[in-house]
Amino acid sequence: MRVLAMLDGTLADPDGLHIRVDDLGLTRGDGIFETILVVDGKPRELGPHLDRLERSARMLELPTPDRAAFERCAQVVIDAWTGPDEMALKIVYTRGPEFGDGTPTGYAMGVPIAEKVLRNRVAGVRAITLDRGFEPSIVASTPWLLLGAKSLSYAVNMAALRWAESHDAEEAIFVATDGSILEGPTSNVVVADGRTLRTPPPALGILRGTTQGALFRAAERAGWATKVEPLRLADLTSADGVFLASSVRKITRVRMVDGRPLPEAAELHAELSALYESEYA
């Protein structure tokens, strides 16, 4: 089950031909995207996702995305969806064809949530740490590295997940060369210590998390403390619970890091998941 809508708001055949072979999003990964969770026809954090799309566009020096057009395009997909109660809504925006007239390419597509993601939400995941190959001190002075942009250049992220899977893990957690915890290839890291939640800061060159932000808002209303601050590997192994947050994962617990078991944290996971869901009750 897939639903495709082009940026002009028209539905299109997802098996049809729509992207030119010289589109720079295809040939060079020169574009940006967002993945939004839709539950029972309601998109979660659509505004923050579109804010992040605009921020990524500025970093790539792309034309400012037409927000109203993307909102309309997203709603067309949602209205046409007849699949499971949950879907992943993917919004894509590229620089357009290399030999075109300069018009960007934009579309939205609804797809089912992968079965392994649904399983991992319940069972938790094993993770390994992988060196991301940069020090956080370079982030501000190297904007061309696009650290913190959600670009289509996801080959490294996908390679990291394949590496994890080939080493008896379901997920990876990137670490900077100075030992700072960064993020997962497609998720944010959240650590729970007592009644405090912590996550690494975007200044380290990581993506601002929409799901992590929703969790923190709900936790604060429930009396939890939240902190956006640097983390080290020792913070993961000593925590009461470690979690990966993303649109499709929601709040997924990490039960092992680099072969080292972490606290089971089943009750804690249930509490945090309930807090997250309370944002949309």
Automatic annotation (TrEMBL):
Gene3D superfamilies in the cross-refs: 3.30.470.10, D-amino Acid Aminotransferase, subunit A, domain 2
UniProt keyword Lyase, yes or no: yes
Gene Ontology terms: cellular component: cytosol
Gene Ontology terms, MF aspect: lyase activity
Swiss-Prot/TrEMBL keywords: Lyase
Coiled coil: none
Biological process, per Gene Ontology: carboxylic acid biosynthetic process
Recorded superkingdom: Bacteria
UniProt cross-references to PANTHER family, sorted A to Z: AMINO-ACID AMINOTRANSFERASE, AMINODEOXYCHORISMATE LYASE
NCBIfam families, sorted: PRK07849.1-1, PRK07849.1-2
Family: Belongs to the class-IV pyridoxal-phosphate-dependent aminotransferase family.
Record's protein name: 4-amino-4-deoxychorismate lyase
Protein's organism: Actinophytocola xinjiangensis
Upper taxonomic lineage: Bacteria, Bacillati, Actinomycetota, Actinomycetes, Pseudonocardiales
